[in-house]
Amino acid sequence: TNKKKGEMKGAGSSSEAGGSSSAGGSSLSCAAKEENVAGTALDDEEAMGRTENFLGVHPVRLVDDIYNFVTVYIKRSVDMLEAALMDDSETRGSAIEVAQGCAGCQSRLVSSLDRNVDKFELYAV
Questions:
Q1: What is the pLDDT of residue 23?
Q2: What residues contact 82, with CB distance under 8 A and at least 6 apart?
Q3: Does residue 68 sit in the same domain as residue 111?
Q4: Where on the tree of life does the source sit, at the highest rank (predicted)?
Q5: Does an H or E element contain 42, and which?
Q6: % of the chain residues with pLDDT over 70
Q7: What are the backbone dihedrals phi and psi of residue 57, each rounded to the nearest 5 degrees, phi first?
Q8: Is the dihedral of CA 48, 51, 57, 59 positive or negative?
Q9: Same domain, yes or no, for 63 and 49?
Q10: 35 lies in which domain range?
Q11: What per-residue confidence (pLDDT) applies to 7?
Q12: Among 60, 63, 80, 49, which Cα is nearest to 114's?
């Protein structure tokens, strides 16, 4: 990245030295814009590195681990709910409806989790 910055600076100054002022000016501004974009990308990488050092793990991996943990938690919770409903005397006869209802509940919870974790990942990363 440093090599590219040096090349861009050199390109801007050489076009400034020879040729018309309008061509040199546009070339210089283009090089400055490219340098700005490269500097922003470098700043983002540096910030990610600092965040990784602070947390001890890369932020994307942290979000993925949170997602996996919550998914397992949802599955276990729905399984416990289903077991409790199957043991209940009032719902024992409708095992198929209980199983279907719990499966629907689990799929809605997981889809809600997917949507919200995607939003959180965009915010956090």
A1: 47
A2: 98, 99, 102
A3: yes
A4: Eukaryota
A5: helix 21-55
A6: 66
A7: -155, 150
A8: negative
A9: no
A10: 2-54
A11: 42
A12: 63
- pLDDT tens digits, residue range 41-75? 557 778 777 877 887 888 888 889 999 999 999 99
- Give the HSE-up count for residue 20: Cα atoms under 13 Å, Cβ half-sphere: 3
Pick from 101, 106, 112, 120: nearest CA to 73:
106
- Our measurement of the distance from residue 60's CA atom to the centroid of its chain's CA atoms, rounded to an integer in Å, reads 6
* Number of folded domains that form the chain: 2
pTM above 0.70, yes or no: no
Query: How is residue 82 written in tokens?
Result: 């289903």
CB 49 within 8 A of CB 61: no
Give the chain's mean pLDDT.
Answer: 75
pLDDT digit string, tens, across residues 89-115: 888 789 999 999 999 999 999 999 999
Beta carbons of 60 and 121 less than 8 angstroms apart: yes
Distances (CA, A) of 76 to 82, 102, 115: 10, 11, 20
